[in-house]
Amino acid sequence: MSCRGGAMPVGAVPAQKGDDMEFDPASDGMKPPGLAHNVYSSLVTPRPIGWISTISAAGAVNLAPYSFFNMVAGDPPAVMFCPNGSHADGGPKDSLRNVREVPEFVFNLCTYDLREAMNATSANLPSEVDEMTTAGIAAAPSVKVRPPRVAASPINLECQVVQILDLPSPATDKNTMVIGQVVQIHIDDGVIVDGMVDWRRLRPLARLGYFDYADLGEVFTLLRPA
Questions:
Q1: Cα(31)–Cα(226) distance, rounded to whole angstroms?
Q2: Per-residue pLDDT tens digits for 122-159
Q3: How is the chain split among helix, strand and coil, in percent rounded to 5?
Q4: Nearest CA-CA partner of 152 in 110, 192, 119
């Protein structure tokens, strides 16, 4: 595409300007010279927060937020979360251990109003501690799975585990992806307007990098080209 007189066509994307920082994560790590912290979580952003409730075979409930979470299929619907790393006391994280014992979980959408409660459930607590109780979060029974739902969350997806995948991992920690098929959906009537979920009423919280999160800000519509 060419343009006369230096004018940019409508919708055209200008060439990138300035110098690039380039590095190989395998050899240089995720904090090369010039960066103060691990940069990876700031590169794929914003991300939905996987606020995941699970239950152990003994009945211990766990609720934890995961920033590596998203949809992976629409028909049938499926989502994934990655309980990477290890528990502070050693071994796999509680969420991973629980879904191996009871292959079910619930995704609870985190909203702006629930931000402090969500953050409280990220604390490193002993495996037998119920994060819902500790953080003062009311639980609601699920319909088709055993883990409870976060009652105040406007959207809950009850999921049955279909696959647990081992991912490339460092020597010290384990990276794992848990894929679950959505078998029951709960939507608060208060966030439905004219037959659609209203993002402004929902106010979902997004994960950025470091210790940063984001509200929706401006919402706009882009129609797909014919």
A1: 43
A2: 888 877 788 899 899 999 999 999 999 999 999 999 99
A3: 15, 30, 50
A4: 110
Q: Give the burial class of 188: count Cβ atoms within 10 A of its Cβ; 0-12 exposed, 13-18 middle, 19 or more buried.
A: middle
Contact partners, residue 19, CB within 8 Å, separation at least 6: none
Identify whether 168 is preceded by a cis peptide bond (ω within 30 of 0). Answer: no
Give the pair of three-digit tokens for residue 168: 């490339």
Residue type, 12: A
Q: Which residues are within 8 A (CB) of 118 and not within 5 positions of it... i.e. 6 or more apart?
A: 49, 51, 65, 110, 205
1, 8, 9, 12, 99 from 4: Cα distances, Å: 10, 9, 10, 14, 60
For residue 64, the one-letter residue type is A
Which amino acid, one-letter code, is at 82? Answer: C
Rounded Cα gap, residues 94 and 62, in angstroms: 7
Q: Residues 101-120: pLDDT tens digits?
A: 999 999 999 999 999 999 99
Domains of the chain with CATH codes: 44-208 (2.30.110.10)
Q: Which residue has the tokens 């309980």?
A: 83
3-state secondary structure of 120: helix
| Tokens at 96, concatenated | 């991973």
Phi then psi for 165, rounded to 5 degrees?
A: -110, 130
Looking at this protein, which amino acid is placed at residue 124?
N
Question: Residue 78, CB half-sphere, CA atoms under 13 Å: how many?
Answer: 15
For the entire predicted model, the pTM comes to 0.86
